[in-house]
Amino acid sequence: MSTFHINSKKNDFSDTILMPGDPIRAKYIAENYLNNFKQINKTRLMLAYTGYYKDKKISVMSHGIGIPSATLYVRELITEYNVKKIIRIGTCGAVRDDIKLRDIVIGLGASTDSKFNRIRFQNHDYAAISDFNIAYNAFLLAKKINLKIHIGNFFTTDSFYTDQNMLDILKKYNIVGIDMETAGIYSVASEFKAQALSICTVSDHISKKESVSSKDRESSFNEMIALSLETALLI
Ligand code: HPA
């Protein structure tokens, strides 16, 4: 079978999936963390794999950049491929002084400048929230292994380059991470009765104009993958 954007067989996916934005990262996770994995999609190079992590069947698929891309994949995965649990693993920007480059942040909820949720929610404000069970398990695990995380409100933007005025407001409202997908993923997951959580590493501190080198990007990414895979075992 295939959907508009995914060309995989009905049972190719696990009900639990990790979703980075970048296809190369999806490949990296499969090659470095999964046993007996196989590639199950390459349409538009949005690579997807299914394999085993400590005996649990897990899929990994990239979702691209932005709400339109991420949500069409999430929707098709849930409605056509029976995916139920989605952990987005990505990078995000930060504005708070106490949040540093490479820190791990978890989006308990996500505000947005996108109209995506308003269009779907008849112009009312939709509180886009993560799944409590996944968030709770990720939190407990991080505590157990002494991994520093920040949990709170994300800001999902349609525009990567945010103006200074908005950055000041995001800081004032204690936003923990700025990304381009989470608010959409959370609402689509809710609509179709699936669970979702975003776990991101801070790749750029926007106020301080700092960004992670490509070498450090990999090691911070590994911490996030490990946390996400171990969380996937518990949910
Ligand atoms: N803004 C939006 N999305 C992002 C950023 C950012 O600064 N960094 C990583 N994803």
TrEMBL record:
<feature type="binding site" description="in other chain">
    <location>
        <begin position="203"/>
        <end position="204"/>
    </location>
    <ligand>
        <name>a purine D-ribonucleoside</name>
    </ligand>
</feature>
<feature type="binding site" description="in other chain">
    <location>
        <position position="21"/>
    </location>
    <ligand>
        <name>phosphate</name>
    </ligand>
</feature>
<dbReference type="InterPro" id="IPR018016">
    <property type="entry name" value="Nucleoside_phosphorylase_CS"/>
</dbReference>
<feature type="site" description="Important for catalytic activity">
    <location>
        <position position="217"/>
    </location>
</feature>
<feature type="binding site">
    <location>
        <position position="5"/>
    </location>
    <ligand>
        <name>a purine D-ribonucleoside</name>
    </ligand>
</feature>
<dbReference type="GO" id="GO:0004731">
    <property type="term" value="F:purine-nucleoside phosphorylase activity"/>
</dbReference>
<dbReference type="GO" id="GO:0006152">
    <property type="term" value="P:purine nucleoside catabolic process"/>
</dbReference>
<feature type="binding site">
    <location>
        <position position="44"/>
    </location>
    <ligand>
        <name>phosphate</name>
    </ligand>
</feature>
<comment type="function">
    <text>Catalyzes the reversible phosphorolytic breakdown of the N-glycosidic bond in the beta-(deoxy)ribonucleoside molecules, with the formation of the corresponding free purine bases and pentose-1-phosphate.</text>
</comment>
<feature type="binding site" description="in other chain">
    <location>
        <begin position="179"/>
        <end position="181"/>
    </location>
    <ligand>
        <name>a purine D-ribonucleoside</name>
    </ligand>
</feature>
<dbReference type="InterPro" id="IPR000845">
    <property type="entry name" value="Nucleoside_phosphorylase_d"/>
</dbReference>
<comment type="subunit">
    <text>Homohexamer; trimer of homodimers.</text>
</comment>
<feature type="binding site" description="in other chain">
    <location>
        <begin position="88"/>
        <end position="91"/>
    </location>
    <ligand>
        <name>phosphate</name>
    </ligand>
</feature>
<dbReference type="InterPro" id="IPR004402">
    <property type="entry name" value="DeoD-type"/>
</dbReference>
<feature type="active site" description="Proton donor">
    <location>
        <position position="204"/>
    </location>
</feature>
<feature type="domain" description="Nucleoside phosphorylase">
    <location>
        <begin position="17"/>
        <end position="212"/>
    </location>
</feature>
<dbReference type="GO" id="GO:0005829">
    <property type="term" value="C:cytosol"/>
</dbReference>
<keyword id="KW-0328">Glycosyltransferase</keyword>
<dbReference type="GO" id="GO:0004850">
    <property type="term" value="F:uridine phosphorylase activity"/>
</dbReference>
<dbReference type="Pfam" id="PF01048">
    <property type="entry name" value="PNP_UDP_1"/>
</dbReference>
<comment type="similarity">
    <text>Belongs to the PNP/UDP phosphorylase family.</text>
</comment>
<feature type="binding site" description="in other chain">
    <location>
        <position position="25"/>
    </location>
    <ligand>
        <name>phosphate</name>
    </ligand>
</feature>
<dbReference type="InterPro" id="IPR035994">
    <property type="entry name" value="Nucleoside_phosphorylase_sf"/>
</dbReference>
<protein>
    <recommendedName>
        <fullName>Purine nucleoside phosphorylase DeoD-type</fullName>
        <ecNumber>2.4.2.1</ecNumber>
    </recommendedName>
</protein>
<keyword id="KW-0808">Transferase</keyword>
